[in-house]
Amino acid sequence: MRKVDPVKHEEKRRExxxxxxxxxxxxxxxxxxxxxxxxxxxxxxGHLYHYFPSKEAIIIGLAGAGLAQATxxxxxxxxxxxxxxxxxxxxxxxxxxxxxxxxxxxxDMLTEAGRSPEIGKILRKHSLAIRAMxxxxxxxxxxxxxxxxxxxxxxxxxTLLSVIDGAKVLTVRDPNFDVKKTVDHLKxxxxxxxxxxxx
Length: 199
Hints:
- The protein is mostly helical.
- It contains 9 helices and no strands.
- The protein folds into 2 domains: 1-53, Arc Repressor Mutant, subunit A (Orthogonal Bundle); 55-194, Tetracycline Repressor, domain 2 (Orthogonal Bundle), CATH 1.10.357.10.
- The longest helix has 28 residues, at 117-144.
């Protein structure tokens, strides 16, 4: 029996996820078929099932990749001496590097989560993990004395996620909005929300 090279396997898996993401952006979650994904990834359906047995499994993979990226970002924030400054820097970097074509995909997936219990379960699990990481970052900031100790970390994490997710919708509402000015205002809003009250 032929051994699977774990490095090549992971590379191909990432290629398939990237191809699926392009298909979902172009055709929507419901419109993109596994045949479309195979054509985009230049593989056969039989080859696809070695990596992902279903479209739901691809969504799990995309959510997992997003979670891994978020985990790396939160680690960079909490490893620094000033978590608030690091968070704002990371936020600005993510907004500058963001692929805005993916925002429509996010909304499409949220809509699909309302129709499909399985997709809804995947997205809820992903959201809870992201919220837990945000809450940990806030607790670390409170420990450092740089974030308002009166904030409930879990509730504040929900608030931050609401603000960030709301910013993503702007790209659908107005594709020509001023990104830099909006990010500057979002940073100001987040700073005022998180800073400890003046003595």
